[in-house]
Design brief:
Elements: H1 4-23, H2 29-41, H3 43-64, H4 66-72, H5 81-106, H6 109-114, E1 117-118, E2 125-128, E3 134-137, E4 142-145, E5 152-158, E6 160-164, E7 176-180, E8 183-187, E9 191-196, E10 201-205, E11 210-215, E12 221-226, E13 230-235, E14 238-239, E15 243-244, H7 247-250, E16 257-264, H8 265-273, E17 279-282, H9 285-288, E18 291-297, H10 301-312, E19 316-319, E20 322-325
Parallel strand pairs: 5-7, 17-20
Antiparallel strand pairs: 1-4, 2-3, 3-6, 4-5, 6-9, 7-8, 8-11, 9-10, 10-13, 11-12, 13-14, 13-15, 16-18, 19-20
Length: 326
């Protein structure tokens, strides 16, 4: 389930892009009808659009007359609290747009602080861990090492990774554990993958077995043991049932391929966003649920997006660091 804050971020980003396209004169009649439809879908869309327009106007004024705004303004006239709040809201919206743009380019700064290893969008990297285990980090991913005397624990902070765990032999008897969100994967063998999706975590087993455990709301853990070729997803609500998995499809990212078989567009876009700086956002909940199938080259997300848009009868509009699919 998408968190409310994530949903609001998506609305704000979509509103900012519509405003940017409108200001740049890049909307034809069909685009304007799509904008009107988006605004009518939810009252929050119209609110976000108005705030983005106010923020753009404020930033434009600062750009045109920075000196006057800095030192030459007359003493401000008293304003009503509601007017003052709208001014603060516009300024906050402007700052939000600027900060969001920086984050879309550089990524989450918190990950830069806490991660021991991370990758940029479209980058894959193979890392040897102190115990001899190997991690292949997928694009836009990050891990932190939490090794101690009790266990070899790796926390997947974002993205996805393929783990080849060094066996528990000789003096090395500590279990190898990967934690992500509310659950953990204990290696009972060697090779498995973990993927932090937008609304859940998926574990896929390639060799031997992996025990996946999730803490339930009542504090009691639920555990399932996966065999090769099986996968399971978990979220805050608990652990789903294990499924048989097409490993070639599930691990296609290791070959720079994206494979989708009747996957909702919102999840497809999440995958595409791992391979590009900036972000694709979807303008409309109905479109987000449309199903996508196909095999795409991860090195050319623009071509993949163009193909998907054409097949779904959708359109795209772009501004710096953001592309709208509607």
């Amino acid at each position: 389930m998408t968190e409310p804050s994530d949903r609001q971020d998506e609305i704000d980003e979509t509103a900012a892009l519509w405003v940017a396209c409108l200001a740049g004169g890049r909307l034809d009649a069909a685009d304007r009808r799509a904008l009107e439809q988006w605004l009518a879908e939810d009252a929050g869309h119209a609110t976000a659009f108005a705030e983005a327009q106010a923020a753009l106007g404020l930033m434009d004024e600062v750009a045109r007359t920075p000196g006057a705004l800095r030192v030459d303004l007359p003493p401000p006239a008293p304003v009503q609290p509601a007017h003052r709040w709208r001014g603060f809201a516009a300024l906050a919206a402007g700052m939000t747009l600027l900060i969001a743009g920086a984050l879309l380019w550089t990524g989450d700064p918190l990950l830069m602080i806490v991660a021991d290893h991370r990758t940029a969008p479209a980058e894959r990297r193979t890392i040897s861990l102190p115990d001899g285990s190997v991690v292949e980090l997928g694009p836009a991913s990050a891990i932190a090492l939490r090794y101690d005397d009790e266990q070899r624990r790796v926390e997947l902070l974002s993205g996805l990774a393929y783990f080849t765990a060094a066996p528990r032999v000789g003096p090395e008897q500590r279990p190898f554990v990967v934690t992500a969100a509310s659950g953990s994967a204990l290696a009972l063998g060697t090779q498995f993958a973990v993927d932090r999706l937008a609304d859940s975590v998926e574990v896929v087993v390639v060799e031997h077995e992996v025990a996946v455990a999730v803490a339930n709301p009542d504090g009691q853990p639920t555990t399932v043991v996966l065999s090769p070729g099986q996968s399971v997803r978990y979220a805050a609500a608990g652990l789903a049932a294990p499924l048989s998995t097409n490993l070639d499809q599930a691990l296609a990212w290791r070959r720079d391929r994206l494979v989708f078989d009747h996957v909702p567009l919102e999840h497809v876009v999440d995958e595409l966003n791992r391979y590009r700086r900036g972000k694709i956002v979807i303008g409309g909940s109905a479109l987000a649920q449309r199903q996508v199938s196909g095999v795409f080259d991860a090195a050319d997300t623009d071509a993949a997006l163009a193909t998907i848009a054409r097949e779904l009868g959708a359109r795209t509009a772009s501004a710096p660091l953001v592309t709208l699919l509607y």
